[in-house]
Structures are given as C-alpha cells and as structure tokens.
Amino acid sequence: MRLLEGRCDGTFLVRPSKNPGQFALSIVAEGKVNHCLILRTERGYGFAEPLTTHPTLRSLVQHYVHNSLEEHNPLLKTTMAYPVFGSS
To answer: Which GO terms describe its molecular function (predicted)?
Structure first.
C-alpha cells in the first residue's frame, strides 16, 4: 500500500475491506506493511474471537493506540501510533 511505504513503525490506516461491509487495518511493523481483517460481530469490532471486541471502530483504534497489536498477532510489535490521515 503506497500510502504506508517508507513510513515509520506504527503508521496505520483503517480502510474498507475488499469484502463489502468489512474493514481492514494496514499498519507498518518492523518496516513492513501488514494487513489485518477487522471482524464485526454482534458484540462489536475486533481482530479475532474471543479476543477483545469494541463497540465501535474508534474504540478499537483507541485500545490499540495504548496496547500493542502483539495481543492479536505476535509479529505486530507496535501500537497504532501514527494515523495516515488526521488524529486517532
């Protein structure tokens, strides 16, 4: 994803997924752009059940501003530190 190329670790973008009605996270970790599907269930948004779910996308982002994505994926040793557009 060109918007993230050359950016520092923790730079991220929440975007519509290729699957209608779903979202994805694109984030730089260890110099590489990674992509994660954001699941939407009746309980809210999250990366995988039964891990933490959040009532809104904004609350999911706020959680990972302060907590490492390593909770979700051991290869993502970063937080959502730098939104590509605007503030988190």
So the answer is: receptor tyrosine kinase binding; signaling adaptor activity
